[in-house]
Amino acid sequence: MIDEKISRRQLLQGALAGLAAVPAVTLIAHSANAAESLSEDDATAKSLAYVGDAGKVDPKTNPTYKPGQHCANCIQYTGQAGAADGPCNIFPGKTVKAKGWCKVWVLKPGEELG
Prior knowledge:
single chain, 114 residues, alpha+beta, High-Potential Iron-Sulfur Protein, Chain A, three-stranded mixed beta sheet, 2 helices, 3 strands, elongated
């Protein structure tokens, strides 16, 4: 067995290299766990009449729909304001289009239809 001593300089260099790697590993892991976009063909999406564009909602088959309703102004939507898509509490692990709509839509407090 070889008995080698590590200098203080080598120890500090190794520690700094390890600390520098933490953000890189976090970014890589975050990218790997990125949520996928909800498909209109998804079974849950179909059961809730989800569409990626609220302008395509058929009011005859969805009488609760009113113009101006879309995912971005729904209480279930947790995406960033102004983003094209974001997470929704109804569809965990998936992102929905901000301009989309489904039967679970409820106006977010402080928002107005328009």
